[in-house]
UniProtKB/TrEMBL annotation:
This is 4-diphosphocytidyl-2-C-methyl-D-erythritol kinase. Pathway: Isoprenoid biosynthesis; isopentenyl diphosphate biosynthesis via DXP pathway; isopentenyl diphosphate from 1-deoxy-D-xylulose 5-phosphate: step 3/6. InterPro entries: GHMP_kinase_C_dom, GHMP_kinase_C_sf, GHMP_kinase_N_dom, IspE, Ribosomal_Su5_D2-typ_SF, Ribsml_uS5_D2-typ_fold_subgr. Signal peptide: none annotated. HAMAP family: IspE. The active site is at K11, D138.
Length: 300
């Protein structure tokens, strides 16, 4: 086989509950991930060494050196297999960069699946999941997709069956936010408020809404403990969220660490209308409609 292509989705967090800061610098989470139909494609081609090239709308914001998460993933896989392998990784980027939608994690997951295939390693999914967890907290979910609860740093996953398809609109922001900076801002706000940080708990009503496919209830129960921090760092996101609610979104939330804003719509038609209203009124400059849940990293 001389080349392999893998498609990997973006995510939104429908519940993101952040526990106290741990000694290792991470936070324990209850993180309900939901994969949505915005996809990066990662192609792996036979080569002597491991290289990366990035194409698409956001390509100029993505590093092509050894810090690229797809390169790091391919290297980690080769190391796990105990041999030196090469692959030219070609990424077609549609997921916003540093947008809180796990774009880099998607490329890492895509590279794991593509190189496992290209190099004929035949490693089982569990091995890929273990390597993924070492690469980043969101990478295992990018492999798995669907809807799932993440605990620990977010890397320990349990799949959640959902009762239907949910329709979303994403408002993309100018410029990204660093995930570490948003977590640090969350800690700073908590320290300033001298608030006790409770151990994160799964929201049972949200679980029920996902299970029955009840978009109204899901919209009412979306929650994100990083939202206050993201809004502090990017105050201009608050009016965008308000505009979405005014235009009938069932729920409006910052996606993960932001700055992308996510709006839950009633159905596909409502999502299209909502996306149009947000751009027509200037509340958002770019919107994307998408649905979830969708599969994780998949060979095409
Ligand atoms: C905000 C989310 O996207 C929600 O799914 C994730 O929690 C972030 O996952 P990620 O981007 O894969 O993050 P990682 O690469 O693992 O970690 C980046 C940085 O985010 C912070 N971090 C991340 C995950 C976590 N449970 N606690 C943290 O405090 C740490 O400062 C860490 O150094
Ligand atoms: N393949 C990649 N795609 C995007 N960014 C990458 C990639 N590899 C490394 N990066 C770096 O990682 C940083 C974070 O990018 P990413 O798109 O993963 O953020 P994010 O979507 O906010 O992540 P998350 O939602 O998982 O917290 C970028 O600013 C970029 O410098």
């Amino acid at each position: 086989m001389s080349s392999v292509t893998v498609r990997v989705p973006a995510k939104v967090n429908v519940q993101l509950s952040v526990g106290p800061l741990r000694e290792d610098g991470y936070h324990d989470l209850v993180n309900v991930f939901h994969a949505v139909s915005i996809f990066d494609e990662v192609m792996a081609k036979e080569s002597e060494s491991i290289t990366v090239a990035v194409h698409g709308k956001w390509s100029d914001q993505v590093p092509v050196d050894d810090s690229n998460l797809a390169i790091r993933a391919a290297r980690a896989l080769a190391k796990h297999a105990g041999r030196t392998y090469g692959a030219d990784l070609i990424i077609q980027k549609a997921i916003p960069v540093a947008g809180g939608m796990a774009g880099g994690s998607a490329d890492a997951a895509g590279a794991l699946v593509a190189c496992n295939e290209l190099w004929g390693l035949g490693l089982p999914f569990e091995d890929l999941m273990e390597i993924a967890g070492d690469l980043g907290s969101d990478v295992p979910f990018s492999l798995l997709g669907g809807t799932a609860v993440g605990t620990g740093r977010g890397e320990q996953l349990s799949e959640l069956p959902t009762g239907g398809t949910f329709h979303w609109v994403f408002a993309l922001a100018n410029g990204g936010l660093s995930t570490a900076t948003v977590y640090a801002e969350c800690d700073r706000l908590r320290e300033a408020a001298a608030a006790d940080v409770p151990w994160p708990q799964l929201d049972d009503t949200l679980m029920e809404a996902l299970g029955t496919g009840d978009a109204y209830s899901l919209g009412a129960h979306l929650s994100n403990d990083l939202q206050a921090a993201a809004l502090n760092l990017r105050p201009e996101l608050a009016p965008t969220l308000d505009a979405g609610r005014q235009h009938g979104a069932l729920g409006a939330i910052v996606s993960g660490s932001g700055p992308t804003c996510a709006f839950l719509a009633i159905d596909a038609t409502h999502a299209r209308d909502l996306a149009q209203s947000l751009t027509a009124t200037g509340a958002a400059h770019t919107t994307v409609a998408a649905h979830g849940p969708v599969h994780g990293a998949t060979l095409v």
